[in-house]
Amino acid sequence: MPSLSPPTESSPPLSPPATVRRNPPRRARQTPAAKALHAGPPPRETNVPAPAPAPAPTSASENLKVFLRIRPLHVTSGVPGCKPSKADGRVPGKGAPPKAESGKNTTCLTVNGPSSVTLTSPLSLHDQKRVKSEVYDGFSFVFPPDTTQQEVYARAINPILMDFMRGTSSLLVALGPTGSGKTYTMFGCATDPGVVPLTLKQFFNYPSEGTGHATRSFYISILEIYSERGKGERILDLSADGEELSFQNSTMIGLKEVMVSNIEEAEHLLALGMLKRSTASTSANNQSSRSQCIINIRSAEKSHNGHNSHSAVLTIADLAGAERERKTGNQGARLQESNFINNTSMVFGQCLRSLHEHQRNPKKPLEKHFKSSMLTRYLRDYMEGKKRMTLILTVKPGEDDYADTSFLLRQASPYMKIKFTNIEEPPNLPNKKRITSSLITDHHKRRKINVSETSVDDEGSHRSNRNDGSRASKKDADTKKLQEVVIPQSSVISTEVLMPMTVDTALNDAHHMELLSLARKEEIMRNFSKALWTTLKQYKQKLIESEKNAQSLREALRKEEVQVMELNKEIEELKSRCSCQKPPHVGESSSAKVYARLDCSRTGLGTPSYQVSSSPTFHNGSTLGIAASQSAQSVSCDQDLNDHNCLLVDQIPENLPGMEIIHDDCNGLAVSEPTMPSTNLNKSEFGNESASSFDNLSMVGGRNVSSSMVDETTNLKENKRQSPEPGLSQAQHLKSSDKYYVRRVLKEKNATVSQSSNVDKPKRKLRPASSMLLKDLTGLDMETTNRETRDKSTDEGQGISQNNASLLCLLRKQS
Ligand SMILES: Nc1ncnc2c1ncn2[C@@H]1O[C@H](COP(=O)(O)OP(=O)(O)OP(=O)(O)O)[C@@H](O)[C@H]1O
């Protein structure tokens, strides 16, 4: 297999490797550019692409951009201000180490094309393992060793700058082994500035968007993370009068942000920072960086109404290169610094690999490697893929650097597959910083101002061993300038310090709190409804039990009532027995009454509550009136004497329960309801002719009750007269007498008919005998009594008279 390394002037022809490993994706064919490279070193104009004049805006989803810059094999110090490193500062003829001579003129890395390189193991390693060449492609661009700073800026930085000016924050990191040219790429030298000065220069040359109605301001903060004698990581503000910082809760406390208005101020600030940065001489680099340097450039565009249109932060990190102890030979403090540097580089790589693995397999959690170092904690958003990041890998192509280069390329190859699909900070988010600034309280602003003042007051008392000269000489001027800058921008500083707390985070927190509140309310309402439901169920059960109790009580009450009724009946029976046993006296007052209460159930009237009431007050003993009344319901008794509802008085047993018979002195018999008022109607109302068929009518309870009765007055009268023993009771008398028919007719219809009847109805003639009898019977008092009754109820009397007319007919029949 032919060698992929392009022939160079300094590199001898390599023996063909046994195997070629491709990482990442294998390509079946070489790219035309690689073929061109294989054909021979192209001229500079064709080998290095021209800067992209108009980079396209970054898409919403794109891979992490990884650029590879290959440092020249030999660095000359021909350019003033650019000091070559110790290892590379050999000038031909000045005595280079002979043992390193063999590998100094050979390269292990060749450029295949704009995005591909081939790493070939040196001959010294052929004996130890199988010879192989590794092809690494997929880079955003590969900068050959002779690439200028401008070309790097144009290819790698300009797209970032365009996004930055549109308001998109991003991170640019230089990563590579020690002495590979990271610091040179970032900062360059006085005569050959790096991408940072070029970027700043471009900033001030960049026209404001729109029609010039807005002004753009730039703010720069610079810091370093270092380890002092292995006692842990520390942070130092590299700006003028900068102090040690603290990083708490994703917030860099005390970091100053200096506004720069022109390129000179910016370069001066950068130069001051580079002077303050921790560097040391090692066997690999005479000015090796011993800290991780971070520069934040913030752009803020203000419109004429004073509002920030948009703002973004471009973070540039120049990491200290990883060092091999065998190669550098560090000891003591340098060795401790090497451990810190290597550890930081390792954590940085772990974060990116974890991010790549997480994106490749979402089930795999994103490891929290960022917690392992201060640098990754500070750049957490970038380590978690929330913001765009660009990597510039710097390598040395010498055979002696094969291990470092191979390690870096293997580690960084997966980085190219990292995608930025969930960018938190979309471009043109004008209100983001403004809203964030509004979250800062005045107290916080005052605190920041005090910090600046305190730092000014304590000038010279801290870190005097670092930059005493420059700080002391510019103390007065810088103090005034910093106050002018920091105080007006105190809110800006606070905003920057609180940058991790973005608007999105604040909104998310607000939404989260709102969701928590809603969830809490929902839980409260759910519990309340449960309690209410339980209470209602308990009340329902209690209600059912109460209904059952009420039902049982009703039944018990019903039974009690039945018992009471039975007891009342028994009492009445006992009373009636007592009264019946009491012998009536013949000589009692004429007003004595006979009360009889008949139990219909026993007398066969069919109505249990039936009561027979007789209400007459008979005088002269010539009239027997028995009025049947009904308190609750009427019992119909036909007027016919043969009707079964009619009672014969002589059929009433003497000891009939409930029947009380009181003998009248007039030999009249009355069976009355004692509680009911009764009215007797005089037969005279019906005329003389009808007097013989007089019916005793009773008014019961104001209710017109037609009591049809027929008295065999003749028999009664005769019985009276023929009574052998005047002292006999009426019952006995009745018993022995002829039959007395007591008829009761209680009909509502009769009452109705009675109402419509007229007393002036044509009277019917009775038989002479009956008429005579009636005349005799109707006495004197009846007439008077009937008159009184008629006064009370004339209507009823009219009805009664008509009703009696029909009764008279029956009497005729019987007579
Ligand atoms: N592309 C380049 N062209 C010319 N000189 C270079 C280039 N890259 C690096 N150098 C020189 O190589 C030397 C080492 O470079 P530099 O200090 O930038 O390495 P580094 O990666 O920053 O090392 P460290 O990690 O130890 O700080 C410097 O003298 C620098 O001038």
From TrEMBL:
Segments forming domain Kinesin motor: 63-418
Q: Where is the composition biased (Basic and acidic residues)?
A: 459-480, 784-795
Q: Any idea which positions bind ATP?
A: 176-183
Give a yes or no for keyword Coiled coil in this entry: yes
- Give the record's GO biological process terms: microtubule-based movement
**PROSITE patterns cross-referenced by the UniProt entry:** KINESIN_MOTOR_2
**Gene Ontology CC, one term:** nucleus
Q: Where is the composition biased (Pro residues)?
A: 40-56
Q: Which UniProt keywords apply?
A: ATP-binding, Coiled coil, Microtubule, Motor protein, Nucleotide-binding
InterPro entries referenced in this protein's UniProt entry, alphabetically: Kinesin-like_fam (IPR027640), Kinesin_motor_dom (IPR001752), Kinesin_motor_dom_sf (IPR036961), P-loop_NTPase (IPR027417)
Keyword Nucleotide-binding applies: yes
The molecular function GO annotations come to: ATP binding; ATP hydrolysis activity; microtubule binding; microtubule motor activity
- According to UniProt, the name of this protein is Kinesin-like protein KIN-6
Q: Which organism is it from?
A: Canna indica
